Structure formats: C-alpha cells, structure tokens
Amino acid sequence: MKSAMNNQTLLCCLVAWFSAQLVKYLIDGLRHKGWSVRHLLFGSGGMPSSHTAFVTALATRAGLLEGFDSLAFAICFVLAFIVMTDAIGVRRETGRQGSAINMLMDWFTLEHAEAEDNGELKERMGHTPLEVLIGTIWGIGCALLFPMP
Predict the structure, then answer these.
(1) Taking the model in full, what pTM does it have?
(2) Of 128, 134, 129, whose CA–CA distance to 56 is shortest?
(3) pLDDT at position 56 over 90
C-alpha cells in the first residue's frame, strides 16, 4: 500500500499552497516590515491566494492526467470555482464587516471608559480578484512544472 506522500498530485498541490504562502509571507513581511511564522503557516488574505493555488493545481493536474473531459476534472473545477468565489465574496465581506465592527468597538471603548476591550476581529480574511487571479496562475504553473508520472 502506497503512502499519501507518494501521491504526486497531492504533493503538487501542497507545493503550490506552500510556495504561494511563502511568497505571500515575504511580500507581507516587506510591506509591513515584520515577520511572523504563524502568518506563514496560517495567514489568510493577501497576494497570492494560496487556497486558490492549491485547488487550481489540483484541477489542472486532474485535467492533465485524466483528461479535461473527465469527471475528475469536472469535480476539481467545481471545487476550485467554489473556493475562488468564496475567497472573493463571502470571506472578503466577512473581513470588511470585521473592520467596521472594530471601528465601532474602538469608538465605543473611547466613549465608555468602563468598557472591556475584547480584542479586534480579524479583518484580512478574503482576497481581491487580482489576488485570486495570481493564485490561479500560480496553481496552474505549479501543476505544469511538476513532474508527470
């Protein structure tokens, strides 16, 4: 029985995710002059979208290996589409709402000295269309560059 680490498609997807996450970490660190290992592994939002790179690498590999007319490609394509639209829509809106709530909480805390500060909500959750587009290109590129069996 082969282990999951012998699965070249899974390895390709993990390489696409981790390399996109690394690039995002470097860009973010240079932009904000700060480095966080936690952000490297678990950060969301930013350029490029590592989730998009992950699922587009999967869909591309499925298409290359099974054919772009296969059920496997269709399933992976639908999954990728859901992840990308969620990143641009729902997750981005959640981040914008977090920003608005944080502003209200800052105002409330200033107005009411007795108010307890419960910390800020996460504001950077989703992606811009450009971040998703670059993640898509990244994932396709990783799949095309990864060795085929």
Answers:
(1) 0.75
(2) 134
(3) yes
